[in-house]
Amino acid sequence: MAANSALLDRTVEEFRRTLTEIGGRPSSPDDAEALGRRAALVVLAGGAWERALGELLTSAEARVLLGGVSREALRKRVLSGSVLALRDEAGLIRYPRWQFDAANSAPFGAIKRLNGIFGEAGLDPWTLASFATSPQPELDGRTPIEAFADVDLEPLLLAARRTVADLMR
Q1: Which one, of 146, 136, 83, lies nearest residue 114 by Cα?
Q2: How far apart are CA 32 and CA 34, in angstroms?
Q3: How far apart are CA 125 and CA 115, in angstroms?
Q4: Are residue 90 and residue 116 in the same domain, yes or no?
Q5: Do 93 and 141 belong to one domain?
Q6: How buried is residue 17: exposed, middle or buried, by Cβ count under 10 Å (0-12/13-18/19+)?
């Protein structure tokens, strides 16, 4: 218990030091409480999403996985919809590992089609990522991730269109 308390104290002290360095000064006790809670939630939210979505790659890791492509090449893949990019509250971009085929590291073709369906409805990439990790009735209870390599993608696309329609009601 003492070790955990010491680690928490060290965490708080580092937060205090960093906040001071960047000029953050709470103006009231309520402001200080809100700032502390927001900081804790931002830190823990990333871990919660990673537990829910699986491994999230950094830009450098995604570029290596794709054969050492440049930042610009990765950006073009994101803009074309063939790669799913998730921007977190800190502004960092992460790439779900599951969108890349383990056999050849290429993005599954289904990603571009799903990006189109969700994007046309104005839904953000986080919504698509949540869909991809959730069992779907059209896939006999499998997740979309488990269906990315299927020869027949129609059930996957049907599940996506149904999910989008449900969300737009």
Answers
A1: 83
A2: 5
A3: 8
A4: yes
A5: yes
A6: exposed
Number of domains composing the chain? 2
The torsion defined by the Cα of 156, 158, 163 and 165, in degrees rounded to 10, comes to 160
pTM over 0.90: no
Whether residue 111 sits in one domain with residue 158: yes
| Ordered per-residue pLDDT tens for the chain, 169 residues | 566 888 888 878 887 777 777 776 777 776 676 667 666 655 555 566 667 788 999 999 999 999 999 999 999 999 999 999 999 878 899 999 999 999 999 999 999 999 999 999 999 999 999 999 999 999 999 999 999 999 999 999 999 999 999 999 8
